[in-house]
Amino acid sequence: MKVGDLVRLKTVDKDQRPTRVGVVIEFIQKKCWRTQEMGTKVNWNAIKPEPHCVVMYDNCSLDIPVEELETIGE
Fold first, then answer.
1. How far is CA 44 from each of CA 29, 51, 64, rounded to the nearest angstrom?
2. Bigger pLDDT: 71 or 12?
3. pTM of model > 0.85
């Protein structure tokens, strides 16, 4: 994955495929607390930053973890 790639969220449920497509405009590092894996008590010191993409959708941008995106057209 690189800047300029078209991406969408990975399919979570086989019956619902994401249709929104965005463009990667930047890579950043951010911490992401995953409550389903680590519980509800947040401890930011216990985790390290992970790669995120800044993705442009329509007229807004979203920071999304790289592991939750898939590249389109490769």
1. 14, 16, 18
2. 71
3. no
